[in-house]
Write a structure and sequence with these properties.
Its EC number is 6.3.4.4. It holds the Pfam family Adenylsucc_synt. Its main location: cytoplasm. Helix 3 crosses helix 4 and helix 5 crosses helix 6. The protein folds into 2 domains: about 300 residues, Adenylosuccinate Synthetase, Chain A, domain 3, CATH 3.90.170.10; about 100 residues, Adenylosuccinate Synthetase, subunit A, domain 2 (Orthogonal Bundle). A 10-stranded mixed beta sheet has the order 9-7-5-2-10-1-11-15-19-20, with helices on both faces. Strands 14, 16, 17 and 18 form a 4-stranded mixed beta sheet that branches. A two-stranded antiparallel sheet has the order 3-4. The chain contains 12 helices and 20 strands. Strand 19 and strand 20 form a beta hairpin. It is globular and about 65 Å long. The structure holds guanosine-5'-diphosphate (GDP), 6-O-phosphoryl inosine monophosphate and magnesium ion. The site of 6-O-phosphoryl inosine monophosphate (IMO) has 22 residues, from helix 4. 6-O-phosphoryl inosine monophosphate binds next to helix 4.
């Protein structure tokens, strides 16, 4: 059995945690392939709610091996506190595997993230402040620290020295901050080494052998398509590749192994942080979506910006990820509107545009062209099959499917594991 990728089709927070957890019971491995603890994935199991940041959501499924791939950036202090938090709640985390090639988010990366955001002022990205961008920048600049470096003190010291050489100049001379001492960083990182050691593995080998043995591997994306460093709304993006190709590089598995790419798609749109968002609402509808949908960031606690569904974005996600299916989430949140606007195209400088413009300037000028779809007022949270949905809800789903370019194979009608309508099986 082959590999599946599950990823965000919009700007993150689509419900990837819930969808991953739903499949977790039927797969052998769940792998995070990019991002870090900028993610906040919520899983609701019975009356228990979990917020996972760095750990794959599969950690909550006892039969599943959770894997942190080479493409992830790991903050060791967050890792250890997330593990102990789960252990205190009775979750067995002993199967976790962490790539020795994953990069470490060092304390100075977190400092640089916060300082640069402050320095950008009005032009800031609105990052999560977790050191994600600076850690990926170090990786690309070839001055990053990897998990394996924690096990060779001399190499670790040399690498921290090399990284801090330039950074301390910038911190002291440009940002007016105190220099960071090499010894202190090395000591802190070495302090985590032994606790992390049991989990460190050659995850590329493990995953490829698992696939050869017909095991099922699920790749769990962080963030979303429009936050992708290459394909998102640059520069208002994260610093990794949440799109499907990222699963290959971020886990060391070839594209020929991947048979299914599932886009998690909210029935409306949200975004956290700065950047263009054509269907954003600033009125009571936006407020209502935020309130009913509980749209507050799991990682930073920031209110999420809310707007209507944008089919241009969904089509784009289908294209750049080669999506085979959608998992439509939070349909229940739309209950109660008489009419629901859906953005079917943009108007840019007086012209109708059907596809996402590649030009940043054009996207900033994009105004949504809405089609009104009739709403429904019945409670749909108990619906178990597509036919249980009111006719107008069915038509809303069908319309979205037609506009978005891939079949909707599951529908979320509540946060719980069982609050899902399965249309086509993912496995
Ligand atoms: P992720 O980052 O993609 O995993 O999504 P988040 O966990 O940040 O945000 C999604 C939120 O919506 C969480 O609070 C989930 O519990 C919740 N959620 C997921 N699916 C559904 C759904 O179908 N209906 C409702 N009402 N809530 C959902
Ligand atoms: P999940 O996995 C929503 C956003 C930040 C900011 C931009 C860059 O829960 O969907 P970063 O700290 O990554 O450098 O911030 O990306 N962002 C997210 N927005 N969901 C996320 O993760 C996000 N992770 C980062 O708000 O705009
Ligand atoms: Mg989230």
């Amino acid at each position: 059995m082959p590999a599946l990728v599950l990823l965000g089709a919009q700007w993150g927070d689509e419900g990837k945690g819930k969808a991953t957890d739903l499949l977790g019971g039927s797969v052998d491995y769940v792998v995070r392939y990019q991002g870090g603890n900028n993610a906040g994935h919520t899983v609701v199991v019975g009356d228990q709610k979990y917020a996972l940041h760095l750990l794959p959501s599969g950690i909550l499924s006892p039969g599943c091996t959770p894997v942190i791939g080479n493409g992830v950036v790991v903050d060791p202090s967050v890792l250890l506190s997330e593990l102990s938090g789960l252990n205190e709640r009775g979750v067995d985390t002993s199967k976790l595997l962490i790539s020795g090639n994953a990069h470490i988010i060092t304390p100075y990366n977190v400092t640089v993230d916060k300082v640069t955001e402050r320095f950008l002022g009005k032009r800031k990205i609105g990052t999560t402040g977790r050191g994600i961008g600076p850690t990926y920048a170090d990786k690309i600049n070839r001055v990053g620290i990897r998990v394996q470096d924690l096990y060779d003190e001399s190499i670790l010291t040399q690498k921290v020295e090399a990284a801090l050489d330039v950074k301390n100049q910038i911190l002291t001379k440009l940002y007016n901050r105190r220099a960071i001492a090499v010894g202190q960083v090395v000591e802190e990182l070495l302090g985590y080494a032994e606790q992390i050691k049991p989990y460190v593995a050659d995850t590329v080998l493990v995953l490829n052998q698992a696939l050869e043995d017909d095991k099922v591997v699920l790749f769990e994306g962080g963030q979303g398509t429009l936050l992708d460093i290459d394909h998102g709304t640059y520069p208002f993006v994260t610093s990794s590749n949440p799109t499907a190709g990222g699963a290959c590089t971020g886990a060391g598995v070839g594209p020929t192994k991947i048979s299914r790419v599932i886009g998690i798609l909210k029935a409306y749109t949200t975004r956290v942080g700065a950047g263009p968002f054509p269907t954003e609402l600033f009125d009571e509808d936006g407020e209502a979506l935020r309130r009913i949908g509980g749209e507050r960031g799991v990682t930073t606690g920031r209110d999420r910006r809310c707007g209507w569904f944008d089919a241009v974005i969904a089509r784009y996600a289908t294209r750049v990820n080669g999506l085979t299916d959608f998992f439509l989430t939070k349909l229940d949140v739309l209950t109660g509107w008489e009419q629901i606007p859906v953005c079917v195209a943009y108007e840019i400088d007086g012209k109708r545009v059907e596809e996402l413009p590649y030009s940043q300037t054009d996207f900033h000028h994009a105004k949504p062209v809405y089609e009104m779809l009739p709403g429904w007022s019945e409670d749909i949270s108990k619906a178990k099959s597509f036919s249980d949905l009111p006719k107008n809800a069915q038509n809303y789903v069908k319309a979205l499917e037609e506009m978005s370019g891939a079949p909707i194979s599951a529908i979320g009608v509540g946060p719980g594991r069982d609050e899902t309508i399965e249309i086509n099986s993912f496995l």
